[in-house]
Fold:
Amino acid sequence: MSDSEAVLTADRLYRFYRAGDEETLALRGVSFEVEPGQVVVVVGPSGSGKSTLLSCVTGLDEPSGGTVWLGSQRMSHRPDAQRARLRAEAIGVMGQERNLVAHLSVAGNVRLSQRLAGRRASTDDVLEAVGIRHRQDAYPHELSGGETARAGLAVALANHPRMLVADEPTGELDEATEQRILALFKERAGAGAGVLIASHSPAVRRAADHVLSLTDGVLTP
Ligand code: ADP
Ligand code: MG
Structure:
């Protein structure tokens, strides 16, 4: 690790799910850092805890134990509203159509993301950057898979986040579109952001500066 301060630090994260007598240990002491400019990819079989990990680091979920830091700010163990504010300010979250509001156009979705972060800015630049400006008036259900991914990325990038987090962002994309999305991730990292992606894709894995392998909630070498 270099001397620069990590954009994101996960310190011994645990996440237990309880349903009656059943207990699932989705994360069992996961620690890692993402540094500015670094693309970190989380790989692992289905059910290994990738989505749980990403939800905990973005503050969408609370770890049962351990701490998440965004730079020097603690993200975990805070009220939902505070986590939401920190997330809006510092993290772009991309998860296929999951970050698009169905009744808003593509541009409307980007604008919503800007408002949540208390920003007023043009949506043109970010839509142009991800190559979706020509579809800015379309609604999510009218978009192809590749367009959906680009619109989701535009929403994630709307506030120039220090940290970009994406759960299986290229899962349903053809290779050319996947390469395009990957290039945009790399470009954000090149501009100094930290990037964390959960993915099964060999192409995403190849684009990583660092790979985290998750098995049954534990990082394996
Ligand atoms: P992955 O993204 O790697 O497929 P997940 O993080 O979705 O893995 O799931 C990790 C484990 O936690 C799985 O055993 C899954 O069934 C369990 N799990 C995930 N979310 C919940 C939940 N809300 N309630 C109970 N168990 C859950
Ligand atoms: Mg998952």
